[in-house]
Amino acid sequence: MEAMDEIVRTLRTHPNGPGRVLLTGWFSFLDGEVTAGDLLARSAAAAALDAAGIAHHSAWSAGFAPGALSLDAARPAGYRHLLFVCGPLHGEQILRLHRRYADCVRLAVDVSVLDPHGPEATGFHRVVARDGDPASPPRPDLAALAPAGPTPPLVAVVLTGGQGEYAGRRRHEEVSDILTAWIGARDCARLPVDTRLAVDDWRLCATAEQFLSVVSRCDAVLTTRLHGLVLALRAGVPVLAVDPVGGGAKVTAQARALRWPAVLGAGEVSADALEGWWRWCLSAAGRTAAARRARLMDRARARAAGRVR
After folding, report:
1. Which of 14, 232, 281, 305 maximizes the CB count within 10 A of its CB?
2. Within 13 Å, how many C-alpha atoms sit on residue 19's CB side?
């Protein structure tokens, strides 16, 4: 990480030492945004400062990390240096940062310089850019070199909000609210997927095979749709199914037909019930059970094809 090596050397040249550094970025602004790349770049910068023995705090947007240190709470007098990490040097947010921390030595690293002569860029005492610096070639983004933990499971979320044919038995909105709040709190990568196909909307699959391709790459599926259940099992992927119709309907019936145990009725949905089946779906037992269902379907298709011939 040559860029951070340069920053560390700059920090150490201060007559009184680096002091405490405030790590900032677009992840610090309440009116900014937080991206995966931003956070990985921040992790890379933090790791480099740790390795150099330089004390630092990170300032976070209260909208993203409520309760963590925010820019409002990070008093300028508490820091000798401010380090801005990742993203474009553009906008009022950057100018506000310069004004608030006017007495700090301000550095920027892994940034895109849109205007080398603009106040956002010239307000920093030193800029180590990833691109846009006419005096140096582009550098690899810090996110490519940042430490990261193990990747969590990828879960397709396949929900339905229609099915008006069930009239007063519909619990679709209630069940969807519970499921989305619950899955949103799990450590997993969530992938919203729809079984509805379209040829005029790039966000939707255009063929059944495309849908199977998406689902087959997931570690689990969470669904309130019959075909979310069936096609996940056809792909050998464990599925946690919830029947959104009061008293049970086609999702429950199909789970029974396929002898798939991880299904809950609309009146059975609770955090404990979801957690129990979630752990099972992601376990070796759940994966084995789903693979067994896929093999049974494969054999059934082969038999059907033989009869057709």
Report:
1. 232
2. 17
Q: How far apart (Å, rounded) are the C-alpha atoms in residues 124 and 140?
A: 21
| 273, amino acid identity | A
Three-class DSSP labels, 247-306:
CCCHHHHHHHHCCCCCEECHHHCCHHHHHHHHHHHCCHHHHHHHHHHHHHHHHHHHHHHH
**Cα 87 to Cα 109: distance, rounded to the nearest angstrom:** 9
Handedness of CA 284, 287, 290, 295 (dihedral sign): negative
What's the pTM value of the predicted model, to 2 decimals? 0.85
Taking a C-beta distance cutoff of 8 angstroms, is the pair 251, 244 a contact? yes
- Which residues neighbour 300 within 8 Å (Cβ) at sequence distance 6 or greater? none
Three-state DSSP class for residue 129? strand
Q: What is the mean pLDDT of residues 44-69?
A: 96
